[in-house]
Amino acid sequence: MIRNVITPTTANASHGANAPHAAGAAGAGATAAEAAAEAAIPSLPEPRGPVSEAVVALLAGDASSGTGQPAEASAAARRADPFGDDLHLALHACYELHYQGFRDVDPGWEWDPSLLALRAELERAFLAALRAETPGGDDVQGVLEELLVEPVNATGISHHLRRNGEMWQLREYVAHRSVYHLKEADPHAWAIPRLRGRAKAALVAVEFDEFGGGRPERMHARLFADLMEEVGLDSSYGAYFGAAPAPMLAITNMMSLFGLHRALRGALVGHFAAAEITTAPGAERFARALRRLGVGERGVRFFTEHVEADAVHEQVLRRDVVGGLLAGEPRLAPDVVLGVQATGLLEERFEAHVLDRWRAPVPRTSLRRPLPRPA
């Protein structure tokens, strides 16, 4: 739920008499803190084809070297499968520069013109595929109302795990979702400077809740890390980038694509609304699955928090964020519809990928490599 929480500042923190002592303490701990922060940054993932190989090779070098975009990489980008591993790992590597970045990668690559040009080739292919694979239209209320009714015979991942899923499958699912949930709500923050008035205020209220209402231990990303630790997974940011297949990377890449382009702000709002509307019922099933498999309440809390919070968030998103945006910019209705439909498309592709492997005659991993057994 949306809370009205204000984090109290430490008493006397701004008093001049205390300032030198505070600065000295911070300085003394700076080396250890910097080392810990550096250790939390992921390494570059292994390439999966010619495009990602070119991107990883560029990022391994010096941004000031003037190497430039290889012509063959641009040609390979135009030929790449818009839903395939090579394109989505390359796009993910480009986007991650705007989040936590990669260990030993020059921060100057974030706005390097040659890399941005290659990223634009990848984005054009991905966006064209999303538009081609969704029906489109401008009936925002219609597509949102469709999400409010779940099929009676639904057979998605949350249903599978609740009914008869095994612990190894639950752990795989959590590893998949860590690609997004360890930076939960970060991509949606890009919408804040692109909105105005009621839409902006409402989105910030939802984001405030996503980030724990000012309490770091309540941040949804932190709650997800707790869940990972409870099921014996590495909760380090980016630990499973390399194991995540294209269907999972495509979901997070869609968020970054919509978020980093002001022209696609309507699509980002549509995506966020769709995600909040559909989260609560699934979260309730996941919570039941975790309890059935013996996961402690520290791990379950991530999902129980979403059952409560997202039931309120979806109303705020529909009424105030989507409604506020379209009241001022009605021409963005087709983009909002695209965001809703693209979210459904990619989630369906992800579920099909996972369940096809889990339900095979000989079940196999849905990741690119099996997870190690928990200690």
Task: Give a written overview of the molecule.
- The protein is 62% helix and 0% strand.
- It has 16 helices and no strands.
- It has helices spanning 19-28, 30-39, 50-59, 71-79, 85-96, 113-132, 140-147, 157-163, 167-181, 186-189, 197-210, 220-230, 246-260, 265-292, 297-328, 333-358.
- The protein is globular.
- Residues 1-28 have low confidence and may be disordered.
- Residues 11-25 have a biased composition (Low complexity).
- Residues 1-25 are annotated as: Disordered.
- Residues 1-10 have a biased composition (Polar residues).
- InterPro entries: Haem_Oase-like_multi-hlx.
Please outline the helices and strands.
Layout: H1 19-28, H2 30-39, H3 50-59, H4 71-79, H5 85-96, H6 113-132, H7 140-147, H8 157-163, H9 167-181, H10 186-189, H11 197-210, H12 220-230, H13 246-260, H14 265-292, H15 297-328, H16 333-358
InterPro entries: Haem_Oase-like_multi-hlx
Organism: Actinomadura viridis
Biased composition (Polar residues): 1-10
Q: Look at the structure and give the mean pLDDT.
A: 89
Structural category: mainly alpha
Work out the helicity level: 55-70%
Which class of the largest domain in CATH terms? Mainly Alpha
What shape does the CA trace take? globular
> Can you tell me the CATH superfamily of the largest domain?
Heme oxygenase-like
Compute the CA-based radius of gyration. 21 Å
Strand content: under 5%
Q: What is the terminal separation in angstroms?
A: 36 Å
| Count of runs of 4 or more consecutive helical residues | 16
- CATH topology of the largest domain, which one? Heme Oxygenase, Chain A
Please mark out the parts with pLDDT under 50 across 5 or more consecutive residues, or reply none: 1-28
| CATH architecture type of the largest domain | Up-down Bundle
Give the total of domains. 2
Order of helices and strands, N to C?
HHHHHHHHHHHHHHHH
Number of DSSP strands? Answer: 0
| Largest sheet: number of strands, sense, barrel closure | none
